Amino acid sequence: MNALPAFKTKVMPVVVIDDAEAAVPLAEALLAGGIDAIEITLRTPAGIIAIERVAKAVPGMVVGAGTLTRPEHFRHVRDAGGVFAVSPGLTPALAQAARFTGLPLIPGTQTASEIIAAMEEGFGFVKLFPANLAGGITALKAYGSVFGEMKFCPTGGVTAETLADYLALPNVPIVGGTWLTPPALVKAGDWAAITALAAAATKAAG
């Protein structure tokens, strides 16, 4: 499948945007803390607008979209300037949409059968979601012995306290999480606090 764009961070913020006005200062705050990629979810109507604004105004940030659940989402994300996509699961229609639009996709998996299905579609990098419900570090160790070439981005239940343990696994190059952008801080516009969280995560990730 399509190769992901290059970014340095090992910690991917998973962001729910309620107000698109917050998107640019939020992205700038994360970038100041050493995080150069962001997953803005399509869980709210502001998601696509936020992606477009960050893509235009924050050139140092690699912006992608999360929670893609329908094929038409891929075109909307691409047209808004998003350069990668993340889905909570995978279907043949979603894989086809990713190929058609040229948008790199990180599909969500939870079971061995879902990982095999992703491999059959040509994916070598998937999301383990929700990681805490899928077995977390224990599951990833087991999957590493079975699916030696598959890489994972665990998301869902990963915290500031556990991210280093996840990243210590050879099949985990990056983790995702929502703790970097707490809704209360975003609503308050406390960008300094978000920069501090991003800097702490960057340091913990090594």
TrEMBL record:
The keyword Lyase applies. Pfam families: Aldolase. InterPro entries: Aldlse_KDPG_KHG (IPR000887), Aldolase_TIM (IPR013785), KDPG/KHG_AS_1 (IPR031337), KDPG/KHG_AS_2 (IPR031338). Keywords: Carbohydrate metabolism, Lyase, Schiff base. Transmembrane segments: none annotated. It is an enzyme of class 4 (lyase). It comes from Derxia gummosa DSM 723. The keyword Phosphoprotein does not apply. Belongs to the KHG/KDPG aldolase family. GO terms for molecular function: 2-dehydro-3-deoxy-phosphogluconate aldolase activity. This is 2-dehydro-3-deoxy-phosphogluconate aldolase. Homotrimer. Pathway: Carbohydrate acid metabolism; 2-dehydro-3-deoxy-D-gluconate degradation; D-glyceraldehyde 3-phosphate and pyruvate from 2-dehydro-3-deoxy-D-gluconate: step 2/2. Signal peptide: none annotated. It catalyses: 2-dehydro-3-deoxy-6-phospho-D-gluconate = D-glyceraldehyde 3-phosphate + pyruvate. The gene is eda.
